Fold this protein.
Amino acid sequence: MSQQSTANERRAQPRSSPERWQTALTAIAPNKILIRGYPLDEMMGRLGFAEAVYLLLMGELPTPAIGRMLNAVLVSSIDHGVTPPSTLAARNVATSGAPLKDCVAAGILAFGPHHGGDIESCMRFLDSGLTLVRGGKTLMQAAEAIVQECVTQREVPPGFGHRFHTRDPRAARLFQMALELELEGEHVRLIRVAERALDAHKDRFERPLPVNVDGAIAAISADLGFAYELGNAIFLISRLPGLIAHAHEERTRQSPMRQIDPKDHDYDGAGQRRLPEGRNSPR
């Protein structure tokens, strides 16, 4: 058989189509958009943003209590001021005149194990303790064991301590809401006990080590069923508006190509004020 005949025979054979891949997130058809099976236009105005995020990530609608809890979690980390590395990265790129998307991308790329990465680490830390509980230890014994391991290695457990706050008001509020909404689960209970266990070792550290907002988010996210990686994703979603605001302010209020010293800033925004009546009470 000639080479030409062989080539013609190969062309005549039907090509096998590649295996089709699957997604369970969004279905698009003419005049129809379904998010996890729900029409997007029906979600608009009926679901809050946090509820829609939960639906997209978890696959089902949240209960009203979970929706409120996740909304509080997203608000809790919406901005951390001008000093965090992510904010400085966004502002430094903004001062060059780069597009807003580049500024925000730089801020997101600044997240790492020491800034925004503690949530996943803390979720794993708590699960190691709960493994001990399922093996027969009490909650206090498990907390003391996982805390002692960190102390022995001269490490601060993930989700504890803050460079500025001696008592993180965001963590306290999240725990309060978890209790009020009856969403306090085994992860929240363990981290509260671990906080007491860690306090017994306060002489080993040079600063107070209360549960910080990352620790609270980690415990609550785990109790809500989020996977480790999604704990960090929730932080990313929460911080995005703050990065946008800082990049936009840098571009509109400051001179280009300036050297940014985070310690050399003054706040000139609104003074402390109260939420309007009805917006600061449980619904």
In short: The longest helix spans residues 228-253. The chain has twelve helices and three strands. The chain has a mean pLDDT of 92. The beta strands are 26-29, 32-35, 38-39.
